[in-house]
């Protein structure tokens, strides 16, 4: 079921501008749809800014008291609170505290269950989209509540480092159940790629481990008890739940937000006399030595960001320290050109074609055919570990020859 064009960019901050700049086209049965430029973009241009359809903090992350807005995921603790908690130094004071952008005076709790939001606007947006149905009220800490049992079960089968969250699926269901136009929300979720039964099983296996069949059944039973909706009955069958699980596992995007790192970036931009700059830099260096460089990681469910390329012409980032995705051009883009991001980080993109394909196959279940991969078709099928062993053997032989 294809989503109408007006739905494609409805989550963008400026939908008319986005639809005038880019379009979604069907490519083929292998790649599915792609994002294409309708106008020229220069390197560094912002292509669009987009909100996720749903987002949620990782459950272990929340259990460890990493405080974030329940809607937009913005950090709720100040940079000073963040640094004190991570360093264990309760009396620590940060210089230039005015550079911290966290505003505790604006924070708003849900009046029923007390979960916290960064603003009244976020609290209202969450209530209108899904929280009215998911709010636990006085049962927030009741271990026997169906939603709490579901979250506890998820934590028992998916340990850190987390790569997904059962609450993304819960908020998907709640968003449809609460919506006046349920069909529109179903169309929005239907945009995401679907997989064959075997591919779905691979994704579930990767997320849950060797005992995934039994764990998936447990999660489905708890999910059904907590959230069953007749109009979405296909999502609650064994095959439908596996498909929903796979959809989130394939299309979810993890992001990190940190008030401390935002404060550090602001400090870096300060114009200071050389001696003050040296003192501030030394303070920050010591602070990072005192703490584990932890960032709060959350799960974002995103759309329209583009297909993968090992030589991307665009990049997704989160500069506002919340769930807003900024898609920006990494190079000049011509009208009609496909806009691609990379699902690999910078270091992974420098690895061999075989290594890149191994990562993409394991995590996203496709074989890349971008320009870089096609140009390296005749390269040896070595993983990066194999390459390192070959290089290591060569170095040892050279050393022995020199001796």
TrEMBL record:
GO terms for cellular component: cytoplasm. It catalyses: L-lysyl-[protein] + 3 S-adenosyl-L-methionine = N(6),N(6),N(6)-trimethyl-L-lysyl-[protein] + 3 S-adenosyl-L-homocysteine + 3 H(+); L-lysyl(20)-[histone H4] + 3 S-adenosyl-L-methionine = N(6),N(6),N(6)-trimethyl-L-lysyl(20)-[histone H4] + 3 S-adenosyl-L-homocysteine + 3 H(+); L-lysyl(36)-[histone H3] + 3 S-adenosyl-L-methionine = N(6),N(6),N(6)-trimethyl-L-lysyl(36)-[histone H3] + 3 S-adenosyl-L-homocysteine + 3 H(+). It is an enzyme of class 2 (transferase). Pfam families: SET, zf-MYND. Coiled coil: none annotated. Residues 20-344 form the SET domain. PROSITE patterns: SET. Keywords: Cytoplasm, Metal-binding, Methyltransferase, S-adenosyl-L-methionine, Transferase, Zinc, Zinc-finger. GO terms for molecular function: histone H3K36 trimethyltransferase activity; histone H4K20 trimethyltransferase activity; zinc ion binding. Residues 379-403 are annotated as: Disordered. One of its GO terms (biological process) is negative regulation of gene expression, epigenetic. It comes from the Eukaryota. Its main location: cytoplasm. Gene3D superfamilies: 1.10.220.160, 6.10.140.2220, SET domain. The keyword Transmembrane helix does not apply. It is found in: Cytoplasm. Its EC number is 2.1.1.359, 2.1.1.372. PANTHER family: HISTONE-LYSINE N-TRIMETHYLTRANSFERASE SMYD5 (PTHR46402:SF2), SET AND MYND DOMAIN-CONTAINING PROTEIN 5 (PTHR46402). This is Protein-lysine N-trimethyltransferase SMYD5. It comes from Cyprinus carpio (Common carp).
